[in-house]
Amino acid sequence: MCSADRQPTAGSVGLGEPGIVPAVGVDPAFEALPYRRLGEAALEAARSAGASQADFRFERLRTQTLRVRDDALETQADAETLGYSVRVVVDGSYGFAADVTQTADAAAATAAKAVQTARALSVLNAEPVELAPEPPHTGEFISEYRIDPFDVPDAEKVELLLDLSRRTRSTGEVAHADAVAMAVGECKYLASMHGTDVTQQRVRVQGSLTGTRIADGSFDTMRTLCPPRGSGWEHIAEYGFADEAGRLADQLTEKMASRSVEPGPYDLVIDPGNLWLVIHESIGHSTELDRALGYEANYAGTSFATFDKLGELQVGSPVMHVTGDRTVPGGLSTVGWDDEGVGAQSWDIIRDGVLVGYQLSRQIAAKQGFERSNGCAFADAPYHVPIQRMPNVSLQPATSDVTLDDLIGGVDRGIYVVGDKSWSIDMQRYNFQFTGQRFYEIRGGRLVGQLRDVAYQGNTIEFWNSMEAVGGPSTWVLGGAFNCGKGQPGQVAPVSHGCPPGLFRGVNVLNTTGEAGR
Question: Which of 229, 431, 451, 464 could bridge to 261 as Cys pair (CB 3.0-4.6 Å)?
Answer without folding.
Answer: 451
